[in-house]
Amino acid sequence: MESLTSNQKVTQSPLFKFLVLEFICLTLMIADKNHQLAQPVRNTLSLAVIPLIKIIEWPQELFDITQVALSRQASLIEENTRLKEQLLDARFKVQQNVTLAAENERLRAMLNASGNSPLATSVAFVSNINQHQKRQHIIIDQGSSSKVFTGQAVLNLEGVIGQVDVVSQTFSHVILITDTEHALPVEILRTGLRTIAYGDGQKLSLTEIPTSADIQPGDVVVTSGFGNRFPRGLQVATIESTAVSPDRTFQTAVAAPLARIDRLSEVFLVWPGE
């Protein structure tokens, strides 16, 4: 009994079990090497494990695909941004060329007009515009060093703009004919009617015209030459509308300046003749 009990202890010990399992493993390895006994089992297990491997590899593949897509998208965004910048630069250069061509055309026209005009004129460039409801002024790049003087008439190819109001050494302020503090002696070209045109902030107002006077929308208003500020016959505005006062003692008219005062870039300075 004691001997049997001793054998049971030996067979149940961990070392004995390990040696038995090691012997079985070695036997199976040798048999498999010589006769490929476990190959069908391995093939079956390989086929069964493939879906598991795919599931395990799927997050990594998804990550790689996402990374490639993001990289391509970033590359496309960068390329799109670069192309937009190139397009903007090209458009800016085209606009510059168009602006320069238009400016050259205007300068040629102004120089030709200056050469053909009986008035003594010079060209000045507008450096700033100050226009709001009441005050209508611009600043030009010529001053007393260019012999500009206060009250000097200023016009462009379309018509009268205003007159020099303040003169400094290198620049001058010009009060526009639409300024509420400006008054200009004018006459109606068609009839010779003479009156005063006052600025109202945007257009010209002709007030206290006799009710018997012939004045109609579309009539051209020119300078009358009174006051010795503006030569006679310079175009100023066109009559837009007329109205009779409530007591019917006089009529008024509203005129739109011929010069595009909101788009000034170059102007004429008019010099008095001999």
Automatic annotation (TrEMBL):
Residues 129-271 form the Rod shape-determining protein MreC beta-barrel core domain. The keyword tRNA-binding does not apply. Involved in formation and maintenance of cell shape. PANTHER family: CELL SHAPE-DETERMINING PROTEIN MREC. It comes from the Bacteria. NCBIfam families: mreC. Signal peptide: none annotated. Keywords: Cell shape. This is Cell shape-determining protein MreC. Belongs to the MreC family. Coiled coil: none annotated. Pfam families: MreC. InterPro entries: Cell/Rod_1, Cell/Rod_MreC_2, MreC, MreC_beta-barrel_core. The gene is mreC.
